[in-house]
Input
Amino acid sequence: MEANYFERMMASAINSMRSNNHEWPDHWDKEKKELFLNQCLEWFEEKELYECCEVVLNEKKKIKK
Output
């Protein structure tokens, strides 16, 4: 059950990033955002979900601006 919930949560995060219609939590600074994205990227790479990796990399580029 836990893994299924986590996979749904990750899918929701990617869908949100794809839409460019998401907001980060107000209390997250740039470092927390990058940490979250790096962890997402690692998980997607392990699962070989390379399309999702591309979405995360694009989001990382937005944050660096």
